[in-house]
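Entry type: protein chain
Record version: 2
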Amino acid sequence: MKTEVKQEEIGIALEVPKTEEELLAQEVKKEEQTPVSAWNPKTQIGKEVKAGRIKNIDSILLSGKKILEPEIVDSLISLEKDLLLVGQSKGKFGGGKRRAWRQTQKKTMEGNVLTFSSMAVVGDRNGHVGLGLGKSKETLPSREKAVRLAKLNVIKVTRGCGNFDCSCSEPHSIPFIVEGKCGSVKVKLIPAPQGTGLVIGDECKKILRLAGIRDVYSYTKGYGRSTINFASACIEALKNTKVLK
């Protein structure tokens, strides 16, 4: 009997998460388990989506109406989410390892007040992508804010094949050259033939993959190590793929 109790105690101890990654995975599972059916819309667009009168998110995005509830996006398309590495870990010799949380602090009379920032990107790999920046006094609330803002900032990306070396008609790249700017960072996206891949920084690769773009050339100018400005400039370039009719 004593050995059985010890085995049960050991089994319970093994189920407790020990790392921050396991805690984040548990939070993501809790968010995915919350049903959209329990959503009580407050805006007119939300009520129409809940009633089934709006079944396509492109009709909302092309009309220029602003989405104020993230449940609207969740009920119309299935999104994947990812965090960008906007921070840097502290340690011996300045640390240097990239991490998802950017930590800042403010000096006050009571002491140091810490603030954590995180940037999330969401997309369906079919021409819809969104970027959001969240700030909070703790890590998990900042991630939740970033994901919520990313859903509210979802845009429609026009894909195509605008490279002269590729004569296919598949939407694997962008239709023409586009540029975006944020701060001192300028990003130029150039169409590429099939098999080229994403020739751009690692953090912008996450954005382009979730947008459904598989091949692209790029040219950057400015302080590209600022991940927040770099990612925002990439989103601005994708906004310019909209073809005016």
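Comment: The two ends are 77 Å apart (CA to CA).
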